[in-house]
Amino acid sequence: MKVLLDKEGTIESLKYSIEEVCQNKDVSSILVLSCDENKYTDIQLNPFLNNLKIPIFGAIFPQIIYARKNLSKGNIIVGLNESVNPLIIENLSSKDEQIESEIEDNFSLDDSIDTMFVFVDGFSSTIATLIDELFNYFGLEHNYIGGGAGSLTFIQKPCIYTNKGLLQDAAVIVATNIKSGIGVKHGWKEISGPFQITKSNKNIIEELDYKPAFEVYKEVIQTNSNNRFNENNFFDIAKGYPFGISKIGSEKVVRDPIRTQNGSLVCVGELHEGDYVDILKGEKSSLINATKDAYIIAKDSYKGENMQITFFIDCISRVLFLEDDFKDELNTIPDDFLTIGALTLGEIANSGQDYLEFYNKTAVVCVL
């Protein structure tokens, strides 16, 4: 495995870095993690991506992580020593039943698979359906690691790297033989609930306990804090108060509300009518300690022989919540190995034992 950091983040530096990694005779596929601030477009990149001779996959995120530092510009290029056959699912939001057939057509259950990388446009409206179909087909036999791509402008645009080009509203799924260990923790605590989702539409909560969702959410937060919502500050407040969906025997699945829409709450990731959710609040110390715990779980569950890197997928809203203290979260991960990763719009993981989920505001640590 060869890892290269490109701090410049220009089109030219990205191409040069990919070509440099490809010159290594042991490299058979490329993983790319990029920053949204690079301002890449599909028009700029597609001719280059289309002409690559080896498989490429990855995504563009609000920030990336290299050597326990978060970067808002640049790229990480990882050369893998095995060839892969990425499954590219386009127009994800308009698909439902077709997702299952595309997975079945691309992967065989007889294949030797240890770790699967899954990157998806964070603003696609059927992410949970994709995750459910992966779980239904593969079960808990493998480890999964990945996240939601996109921009903190909340404007959907091309953000998924493939040999077909830079894609919007898409997912790329890659099966590898890489051994891994994964830990998942978030550190958020309940302050109110549970509330039943009595009306929803994919990633939009319309009603909680038969009342407009924002009305309920607003009342809880304004009762439990000095925060007061106005027309312009929803996300500034909401980043500290996510929803938590209870799951038997595992961490709560956190959902991030990012904006209001006619009295409803638009979230990153789907929620289902009938689900019960709590409203959560975080303390800086509990979030930082959760990452430390996730690393310990990941390292303890690693079954390989030659650990090379720590792959850290963390939510960008944790950065916004922790602010300057986010460096303390990064520093809970030991520097025994190089740490790379991404700050995402939703995290994808399981540990080979727990449910496969699309999380928000959660720290996912993977050792490879």
TrEMBL record:
Coiled coil: none
Record's keyword terms, sorted: Kinase, Transferase
Record GO terms (molecular function): kinase activity
Keyword Kinase carried by entry: yes
PANTHER family: BLR0328 PROTEIN
Domain FIST C-domain: 213-351
Domain FIST: 28-212
Protein name: Histidine kinase
Domain of life, source organism: Bacteria
Annotated Pfam families: FIST, FIST_C
Metal-binding as UniProt keyword: no
Matches recorded under InterPro entries: FIST_C, FIST_domain_N
